[in-house]
Amino acid sequence: MTQSRRLKKTLVLSALCVLGLAMASPAADPMTMVPSGSLFCVRINNLDGALGQIDMFLTGLLPFGVSMPVKAQLGQFLGSTQPQGVNMAGGFVLFGPLPGGDPDPSRIGLLVPVSSYQQFVSGNPNVGQPNAQGISQIGPEGAPMLAAVEVGGYALVSTIGNEEALTTLKASGAGSSTLASALDAAELKQSGSAPVWIYANVELAGQLFGPMLQAKIEEAKQGMQAMEAQGQGGMAKQATANIEASAAMLDTLMKEAKYLSISLSPSVDRIGASFVLAGVPGSGMAQMFQGGSSSGAGKLLGYMQDGAAVNFAASMDSPLWKKLNEASIDMMSKAGGEGAGADDIASLKKMVADTMDAFGGAMAGSLSVDMNSKPPFRVTWVADLKDPAKYSQLMDQAAQLMTTGSVGKLYEQMGMQCTFELKKNASTHAGVPIDAVTFAMKATKADAPEAQAINAIYGDGLDIQMATVNNQLVYALGPDAQTAVEKLIDQVKAGGPKAVSGEAKTALAMIPGADRSDFFMSLNVLHLMKIASAFAPMPMPQTDIPSQSSIAVAGNASGGKMTVDLAVPKQHVQEIMAIVMQMQQQQMQP
């Protein structure tokens, strides 16, 4: 009986001990110790686990992983092959600049999770004892390189010379204005769950570096204008226009973007990445990144083709596309220099907006390789039409705009001449009229650097066939466009493909919810390299390595943020490495 009581007492004490440990104050969320005014922040959650995941992905790609070099470097800094007091399963956070002083991004801080700061100081030979301010120097005796202080369950480490900032953070932390309070709930959660999370404060970067970058761009622009004044027009003039377009895009990004974040999630068979670009509230970018009432791009996914270089699908109801089209027209007009005037640009924007209004629902299609034709690719796609009659009228307007209208003027300023010939009801199939378009582009100067690439793409003109059936537009481009559009007509009449198959299905499965996203793409780099080889100024080695995988991309705009998810399978990386090695071997042969 006494032994039983002792056993119960031991169990109770053990339980209380475990409960006490569980209720002990854990290390604070590191985001509460990072100032909101940080220019950048890199967070690795569970360093051991994250390094292990990266090693799994790199197995078979590289002869070594990253775990051993990273741990060896950490041990070298601390003077211990087995760092003492460091919680390798904790979160490591690198950020900058440290508060106080100049906003120099080189004034960085590193939060190292420690299980015991005393053990961290006494157990690592390169870590000195704290001084009166709690600062420990790290490095070989007589030549310390780093300084550290205990902050909220972490060792805050920086380079020698930043002791004042370390003391400030030890005394008061980051204050009330922390990165944890600056991030929205979804982004804060992502920062703590992704194996690797990277943050860039674009708004602050614009304030700090925007004027300097714009000054450099203006300097380059003046250099081009000087060349033009010396009679070296042509390329210099176009280069000036391109610089102006780039400056406008950079200016918009710096003024309207709030932050960019990247989350990395490696695994044994793929590496995932999630990119988030948030607009400044009330800005044009934030308005562009508002979600629509769309149900996603999933309705027409079955029209994506197996073995394509690019598969794509999108929801046409999202306001994102209309805003993107307007932005691209503005960029195109700047790149065209003295091209179309304000009235031409306004009419072009109206036509594009009307075209988007004519669509409604989803679209999906494919770009496939065809090395025996010019161009060396084929395109097919299907899109829901809300107003087929309106779309037909807009096609008539497009013919004029693309030749003598605003678009034609813009292309002319960029050294290209465009022809667009539309034949309504050129043929029929299964009772459905088919329109034919011949679209051609050629360089105004045959000896221009871009002339060869333009000729490789367009040749004597692209053959495009399109038709409207059951309120859906079917479109085909390529040497067999007539056959392709007839097949699409038959598919639409039969109710459309019932399922997604092949590589497209595999790519969709790599990103959860990709079938409900605003847009989805699968990219096969090997097939795209084949297409690119047709445009190269010099012959490129041809390869015969088959590919049965692709990169998946899915994007969603909502709440003023654009999120793009990327999944890269290890198999595809191995295929790319194999084709590069084969090309190198061919180049070494006489």
Which key phrases capture this entry?
590 residues, alpha+beta, 19-stranded antiparallel β-sheet, elongated
Task: Write up this protein.
This protein has helices at 2-23, 47-58, 67-78, 117-123, 163-172, 179-182, 185-193, 202-229, 235-256, 284-288, 319-335, 342-358, 388-403, 406-413, 451-458, 481-493, 502-509, 525-533, 570-588, and strands at residues 40-44, 92-96, 109-113, 136-138, 146-151, 154-159, 196-200, 257-266, 270-279, 310-315, 359-369, 377-385, 416-429, 432-443, 462-469, 472-477, 519-523, 551-558, 561-569. By secondary structure, it is α+β, with helices and mostly antiparallel strands. It has a 19-stranded antiparallel beta sheet, with helices on both faces. The longest helix has 28 residues, at 202-229.
Q: The biggest beta sheet, please?
A: 19 strands, antiparallel
3D shape: elongated
The number of helical runs is 19
N-end to C-end Cα span: 92 Å
Number of strand segments: 19
Spans of at least 5 consecutive residues with low confidence: 1-26
The structural class is: alpha+beta
Arithmetic mean of pLDDT: 83
